[in-house]
Amino acid sequence: MPYPDDLLEQAWHLARREKKKPRQASLRRAVSTAYYALFHLLIHEATLNWRKADQRALLARFFEHGKMKSASKKQTDDLNVFFKTNPSVGHKLDTAQHLHRVADTFTKTQQQRHTADYDGATKWARTDVVGVIERVESAFKSWHAIREEPTAQTYLISLLGNPKG
Amino acid sequence: MLSVPRVWVNPNQIAKALRRAERALAPDVVLIRFTLRDDWTGDPSIFFKVVLSDKAASKQSKLNELTERIEFTINNKVKPDELGLNSYFNFRSLSEHNELNDPAWA
């Protein structure tokens, strides 16, 4: 099983680890792991385009959380503008909706991960954590539906950062 | 670079919009709270805290569908985009809310 899928499975395991009263540690790690599942899925997909397979792990280290968030936010903003044009039903709209789900989930889950990892005052409930993991799972499905689309591939490139920056 | 909301944010207007959202989303949603602050990258943001009825939260196979519908409704009422705010959501059931007794959600 690929690493991102393993992480997603691990997030579920942590979220359900204690049957009755979940430990905050389990819930926090579940949120963080769900985010990293999507983080690594996108980086894995981006680096697959690099022809030299033995350099992909090195290339993966050039991706940064903040730049990936900015790119994902811009992607969702651009798609929201597109949706407001009332596009006709069809392949282009389907692709846009899937891509929106991926980019939006990335942005939102990254903030959740930051809270889970660094804000000790925040208490987590299992309902919240299950919602985060379900959303990441849904983003995985959306990604697999559009991974070969040009707009999806362009999104992957944008995750490296602003070319003018 | 300092990032600021595009327009002045009026918390009272947001609270009023949220009351409308609560009514529209009842009985699945019991209450909604919000906090205005920057997210971890320094972007102005609004953090919604949504308490679900136990019945709604217990439908865990459909939880994602429910939370997406709730987010859509709240975003439509409050319009964080037009206020220059990123929006983030957290959810808990009424039982969890009572058990955690969390001042941040009071």
Molecular structure report:
- The complex is a heterodimer of chains A (165) and B (106).
- The model of chain A has no long low-confidence stretch (mean pLDDT 96).
- Chain A starts with a helix and ends in a 7-residue tail after the last helix.
- Chain A has one domain.
- By secondary structure, chain A is mostly helical.
- Chain A has helices spanning 3-15, 24-47, 56-60, 65-83, 91-118, 126-146, 150-158.
- Chain B is an alpha+beta fold and 106 residues long.
- Chain B has one domain: Alpha-Beta Plaits (2-Layer Sandwich).
- Chain B has four helices and three strands, in the order αββααβα.
- The interface between A and B is medium-sized, with 27 and 24 residues.
Kindly report the spatial arrangement of strands forming the biggest sheet of chain B.
Answer: 1-2-3
Q: Report strand % of chain B.
A: 25-35%
Number of domains of chain A: 1
Low-confidence parts of chain A lasting 5 or more residues at pLDDT below 50?
none
How many helices of chain A?
7
- Class by helix and strand content of chain B? alpha+beta
Q: Main interface pair?
A: A-B, 27 and 24 residues
Oligomerization status of the protein chains: heterodimer
Q: Percentage of helical residues of chain A?
A: over 70%
Mean pLDDT of chain A: 96
Low-confidence segments of chain B:
none
Q: What's the order of the H and E elements of chain B?
A: HEEHHEH
Number of helices, where a helix is a run of at least 4 consecutive DSSP H or I residues of chain B: 4
Report the biggest beta sheet of chain A as strand number plus sense, adding barrel if it closes: none
Measured by DSSP, the beta-strand proportion of chain A falls in under 5%
Outline type of chain B = globular
- Helix and strand sequence of chain A: HHHHHHH
By secondary-structure content and strand pairing, the structural class of chain A works out as: mainly alpha
Rounded radius of gyration of chain A (Å): 16 Å
Number of domains of chain B: 1
Task: Please identify, by name, the CATH architecture of chain B.
Answer: 2-Layer Sandwich
